[in-house]
Specification:
119 residues; mainly beta; Jelly Rolls; five-stranded antiparallel sheet; 10 strands; 0% helix
């Protein structure tokens, strides 16, 4: 999946628009990660690459990872495990890759774990 360019956000296919139904107050564990590669860019500096997992409506960031990459560098961005308490309802989960200013990149092999523990 190619990230379209500087300062842009790109939804991760297969990890965006996930519907999560919570029937009782629950602890929800989020963890994920994605591999990113910076493309060649003449004269571009090292820039931040972000991987974010969020709940839509209202927007809530539930996990994030960030790294600075030089052109032609590669890295894995893990979010670690994040715990959130969610009330009953239907939630939409989105994973997004962000590219900082300068150059573009490619993201591959992303994954997302969502574990629901009813209270």
């Amino acid at each position: 999946m190619n990230n379209p360019g500087p300062g842009s956000a790109y939804p991760v296919p297969g990890l965006t628009g996930i519907s999560l139904v919570i029937t009782s107050v629950s602890k929800v564990i989020f963890s994920g990660g994605i591999f990113v590669d910076r493309n060649a860019c003449g004269g571009c500096p090292s820039v931040a690459q972000y991987f974010e997992v969020s709940i839509a409506s209202p927007y809530t960031r539930v996990a994030q990872s960030q790294i600075h990459l030089s052109p032609l560098a590669s890295a894995f961005l893990p979010t670690g495990m994040r715990f959130h308490t969610l009330n009953p309802g239907t939630y939409t989960i989105n994973a997004t890759i962000f590219n900082g200013a300068g150059g573009s990149g490619t993201a591959t092999e992303g994954w997302l774990n969502i574990i629901v523990v009813p209270q």
